[in-house]
Design a protein that fits this description.
The protein is α+β, with helices and mostly antiparallel strands and 129 residues long. It is 26% helix and 20% strand. It has four helices and five strands; from the N terminus they run H-E-E-H-E-E-H-H-E. The strands form two sheets. It has a three-stranded mixed sheet with strand order 3-4-5. Strands 1-2 form a two-stranded antiparallel ribbon.
């Protein structure tokens, strides 16, 4: 990265001594519920990734009607594990897998829904719908 156009001070703030830019995390690493509970998406993602059926996931905050947020998961399934489960158990992926993965968590931390999609984290930086 060459830097910000006509903004050398900003460029110095974001580049290290060798001129490299390091991106180390999310723009916003906290979901705040309407009850002022703080949820760290990484905590939920780590629980979900313990399931052999989930290859990748990202948890985002979606806005509710009262102005708070609730956790929502974007999941990319492990195709091999899904095929095995469907062949052995005769069922497909449902929200039961999310409930099993997040069992023992506070109720407000359990994702209220999920989408199945290829996970492109950069798309979810400001995804609140």
């Amino acid at each position: 990265m060459l830097g910000y156009l006509t903004m050398p001070e900003k460029t110095r703030e974001v580049l290290d001594a060798d001129g490299y830019l390091f991106i180390t995390g999310r723009l916003k690493s906290i979901i705040v519920t309407k009850g002022a509970k703080n949820i760290y998406p990484e905590e939920i993602e780590n629980l979900l990734l313990q399931s052999p059926l989930i290859a990748e996931c990202v948890v985002i905050g979606k806005l509710d009607k009262e102005g708070g947020e609730y956790p929502h998961a974007i999941l990319y399934p492990n195709a091999d594990a899904m095929k095995t489960m469907e062949a052995e158990a005769g069922k497909s992926f449902t929200d039961d897998e999310i409930k099993k993965s997040t069992a023992g968590s506070a109720v407000y931390k359990i994702p209220h829904g999920f989408d199945v999609s290829k996970v492109k984290r950069f798309l979810f930086a400001e995804a609140k719908k």
